[in-house]
Design brief:
This protein is mainly β and 856 residues long. It contains six helices and 60 strands. The strands form 13 sheets. Strands 19, 21, 22, 25, 26, 28, 31, 32 and 33 form a nine-stranded mixed sheet that branches. Strands 10, 13, 14, 17, 18, 20, 23 and 24 form an eight-stranded mixed sheet that branches. Strands 27, 29, 30, 34, 35, 37, 40 and 41 form an eight-stranded mixed sheet that branches. It is elongated. The protein starts with a helix and ends in a 24-residue tail after the last strand.
Length: 856
């Protein structure tokens, strides 16, 4: 009975249960804020309606944007929560109905906040020294725990009190340093869920710029087209930008200014005085900006702004010259006239010249004006930058001033000029008077007047004693008149010169004398020197005189012989009387009788000639040189020849030696290098040996840049034209020679053609002999000088112990009066050793000793 009853109850319960059952999957849900999630409601049994209800008990309607309900089929319904937020949390209920049957199930939805970094920017920048706050905003539910790390390690706040975590979780670094820069780790943890997340934050520490001017002051000169460089060096992080400003205006690259790439250098072009002042160098970055001042000092070169010519009259009380100048620093002004310089204050003992200066003005006051004050004055303004010079002219009007030698000497029949030199401004007219009569006059027809801008010359040719005497010169201008008497005095012959001594040598002697006590009123033009053996005829020669003449060398003397010598002086008037004769004896020469032990000493003392004295004269063209020599003592033996050699000073080898005959007085060296210093040696050679070399140095001229022929207006023919003309002339010359040879000697090209093509007979043996004889005759009769080319230095002959040789065909012969005997058969011999220079020889006017006279 019991079992039946249990079965019935079970059947009733299963029937009711099978009717409707509801189950939600998943049975519970946790959703992170912002996430989406769905729940599936499954119904077992027939259900007409399946509905979802929110935690508020409100039925969730379809198509809500945040919560969506959808029924897939008869037995399921889906609840989807999109982008869940905190309000989405609660118990959701799924209810299934079928008529009066109803079943339901619930699910609890929990909403939580995941770790979310709302703000953790990177990089974060701070200025060095600021209190930095590194932002890291994190949210989660429950709230997270924050951990800060730097360089991979957890920050130990207890060790560095500068680090601190603020209430909002930010990391604070007080007085942040550049060394604090780097990557920081902001780490968030939720222990309940074991959730962890982090953000790497780059911290940048910017450093305020530092700035330093390379020069705090820069000096420049105005108005000379120069530029000024202002420079500053800036440092900081990030690298600062540099700008320049002047008078609160930022400067940019343009016509006036120029900046380099990083802006650290400012160039001010064409500096002017207005550019002077302060310039600001500004360095700026994210940390801030710094500025530095640079001063530009602009100096101005002096410039004379006012200086005018002045005019005054002689004996005026004063005249003032004014000079004004500008410049920075203020220039000092000075005056100069001729060789005198005038500065501030009184400039003369008589207080007639005074200089006064004030600021940029200087005045030169000349009191009691003299005619000598006239001329060009120089005003000089100078400062530390430079100077400026300008000239002005002071014109002084004054009456004539007559100058010139009062006495003029002449003689009857000789014209003389009496010079009346006149200084006057304005220019003066000059008149000449003689005994109150203006010249020229009818009584004096032997006078002429020549005028120049500064002088008047009266030429008088006296015929008698009457023309000698006083002449008057009168000069007149607008300022006044002045006269002066001039004397024309009859000249006389000079007095006798005085022989002060004689320096004898073996074949020459030097006469030392003093000039005459009286010149006779006119200059000495020549001296006559006469010498003789006692009791014989006088031999003489005239020597030109000049201011330095006090020694005269006579030559052609016999060794160890007593001579008398006397002198007279010659001027335009005539010759003086001879002075008393002086006696001297020439030195001996080495002979074969001298012992050998004494021969070397005697030979060195008197045997060799003295070194010739050299003079140099550069020839026209600049690279040719004329070397003159003055023969000195010949050592008792006639000079045979001269040896000349030369070289450039920088060269190590001499040019080939040149041998010059004894009658020559100079040599011309041509074809020398331009602008080069040369050294020349000349050695005199006699029978006893060689003299010491006479030396001279000189420099040739700089090579001209123009061709003289072109400058002088030459023909202008080119090189090709000249060569062509020369070829034509040469060809015509060859034709002429060939024709001449054909008719005279029966030879040449025409003769060859006649023999070979025309059948003419050639010249015979007789003709050949005639030609040979003629050639020999031509050679013998040649008048050309013999030129000997030396290949090596020849030994000097020494006959019989060094005595002189007999005269030969090349030895000059002299008569007792010292003149060279002309002989057509005697020819000079010039020996040249590979010389490239041009050699010109001129016979000497000095008498030469013949062979007999040179023998002791």
């Amino acid at each position: 009975m019991l079992q039946i009853r249990d079965i019935i109850w079970r059947l009733l319960f299963i029937g009711c249960a099978a009717a409707i059952q509801v189950e939600i999957t998943p049975t519970q849900g946790e959703i992170s804020v912002g996430e989406s999630k769905f729940f599936l409601c499954e119904v077992v049994g027939d259900a007409k309606d399946i509905d979802w209800y929110a935690p508020s008990g409100e039925k969730i309607l379809p198509n809500r944007p945040d919560i969506f309900v959808s029924r897939s089929d008869e037995t399921t319904s889906t609840l989807t929560i999109y982008h869940a937020n905190v309000d989405s949390a609660g118990i959701y209920k799924c209810v299934a109905k079928n008529g009066d049957k109803e079943a339901q199930a619930t699910v609890q939805v929990k909403i939580f906040q995941k770790i979310t970094f709302e703000s953790a920017p990177s990089p974060q920048e701070f200025s060095e020294g600021d209190d930095a706050e590194i932002v890291c905003d994190v949210i989660s539910s429950p709230p997270p725990t924050l951990i800060w790390k730097h360089k991979g390690s957890k920050i130990q706040f207890a060790k560095d009190v500068r680090f601190k975590i603020l209430d909002n979780g930010h990391l604070q670094i007080r007085s942040i340093k550049k060394t604090d820069e780097g990557m920081y780790n902001c780490e968030a943890r939720v222990m309940a869920r074991g959730e962890i997340d982090f953000r790497m934050i780059k911290v940048v520490v910017n450093v305020l710029p530092t700035i330093r001017a390379r020069q705090s002051e820069v000096n420049a000169t105005a108005d000379v087209g120069s530029s000024a460089l202002l420079a500053c060096d800036a440092d900081g992080f990030p690298e600062p930008t540099v700008t320049w400003a002047h008078n609160n205006v930022v400067l940019e690259t343009g016509d006036k200014y120029s900046l380099n790439e990083d802006g650290s250098e400012l160039v001010i072009k064409d500096v002017a005085k207005v550019d002077e002042g302060e310039y600001t160098c500004i360095a700026k970055n994210k940390a801030g900006e710094k500025a530095e001042e640079v001063s530009l000092n602009v100096f101005v070169q002096p410039k004379i702004t006012y200086l005018n010519n002045q005019t005054a009259a002689e004996f005026d009380e004063q005249v003032t010259l004014t000079c004004e100048a500008s410049g920075d620093p203020t220039p000092t002004i000075s005056w100069s006239f001729e060789n005198r310089v005038f500065a501030e204050g009184q400039q003369s003992l008589d207080r007639n010249i005074v200089v006064r200066s004030h600021a940029r003005v200087s005045s030169l006051t000349l009191k009691n004006v003299q005619f000598t004050y006239a001329g060009q004055y120089l005003c000089t303004a100078g400062n530390s930058i430079g100077q400026d010079d300008q000239h002005m002219y002071l014109e002084v009007r004054y009456s004539p001033k007559i100058q010139g030698p009062v006495a003029t000497y002449t003689w009857e029949g000789n014209a003389a000029n009496i010079s009346c030199e006149v200084e006057a401004h304005p220019g003066a007219s000059v008149l000449w008077f003689r005994d109150g009569l203006q010249l020229p006059s009818a009584n004096m027809t032997n006078t002429k007047i020549y005028n120049t801008p500064t002088a008047s010359h009266l030429e008088v040719t006296p015929d008698s004693q009457y023309e000698f005497g006083s002449y008057n010169c009168t000069a007149t201008n607008a300022m006044g008149t002045e006269s002066k008497e001039f004397l024309l005095i009859q000249a006389d012959v000079p007095s006798s010169p005085e022989i002060q001594g004689v320096e004898p040598f073996s074949s020459t002697a030097v006469v030392v004398f003093g000039e005459p006590d009286s010149m006779g009123g006119v200059p000495i033009i020549r001296y006559r020197v006469e010498w003789r053996l006692p009791g014989q005829q006088w031999t003489g020669r005239e020597y030109d005189a000049d201011d330095a003449t006090s020694r005269i060398t006579i030559a052609g003397l016999k060794p160890e012989t007593t001579y008398e010598v006397k002198m007279s002086a010659i001027n335009g008037k005539g010759e003086s009387e001879s002075c008393p004769a002086s006696t001297f004896k020439t030195e001996p020469v080495l002979s074969s009788a001298i012992p050998p032990t004494l021969a070397a000493t005697t030979l060195a003392r008197i045997g060799e000639p003295s070194a010739p004295k050299l003079e140099v004269k550069v020839q026209k063209g600049g690279n040719s040189l004329k070397v003159n020599w003055i023969k000195q003592d010949d050592g008792g033996s006639p000079i045979m020849y001269y040896l000349v050699r030369y070289k450039a000073r920088h060269a190590s080898h001499w040019k080939p030696e040149i041998r010059i005959p004894n009658a020559s007085e100079y040599v011309v060296l041509s074809g020398l290098d331009w602008n080069t210093e040369y050294e020349v040696h000349v050695v005199a050679v006699n029978q006893q040996g060689k003299s010491e070399p006479g030396t001279v140095s000189f420099r040739t001229a700089t090579e001209p840049t123009t061709v003289p022929d072109a400058v002088d207006g030459g023909s202008g023919l080119g090189t090709g034209a000249i060569v062509g003309i020369l070829i034509v002339v040469f060809f015509l010359l060859l034709v002429g020679v060939d024709v001449t040879c054909y008719f005279l000697n029966k030879c040449g090209l025409l003769m060859c053609i006649a023999v070979n093509f025309c059948g003419k007979a050639g010249p015979g043996a007789k003709s050949k002999d005639i030609e040979e004889g003629k050639a020999a005759f031509t050679k013998d009769e040649s008048k050309e000088p013999i030129v000997e080319v030396r290949t090596e230095e020849e030994p000097v002959p020494n006959q019989e112990g060094g005595g002189p040789t007999e005269p030969n065909e090349t030895t000059p012969l002299t008569e007792p009066d010292g003149k060279t005997v002309k002989d057509d058969s005697t020819k000079g011999e010039t020996e040249v050793k590979n010389a490239t220079a041009e050699v010109k020889t001129v016979p000497s006017e000095a008498p030469q000793a013949n062979g007999n006279e040179s023998k002791a």
